[in-house]
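Study the following:
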Amino acid sequence: MAYHKSLKNLFADMEAKANSIMANDVFDKVVEVQSEMVEKHVYDAYDPTAYSRRGRNGGLADPNNNVATFFSINGAMQMLIENITTGSDEGTYIAGLVEYGHNNGYGKYQYPYSSTQDPNFLLPRPFISETIKHLQASGIIRQAFIEGFNKRGITTY
């Protein structure tokens, strides 16, 4: 157990631990939920005919295709997670395109629609908003903080 000679040192230690929990424990949980939401709301929406999905191996559901940026607003740590998956042919980011649909301000699909394809691939498949809803309803982030503090020697309930 760490002992602190001042409240300033205690607060600095707690902030460092909280930052570490955000960057590791919380990030990992959020990315896992997002991968599940991609599978449910993106991949289950239709079966592609013009390409093969990469899934959790380089595709939209791959946890390794997520990066976090940390910043502070009024002293509160914030985390922005971006899915940086790119299309296999054009190399452009596809998260916004999938979330909001074809030609809705985030690009167009490189595979034009034909009568042999399921037109559902053009529609929005909101995995980001569904991730947020799931995280807000589930308490996963709170639980990640509790477990993270406990792992770091601060008993939390």
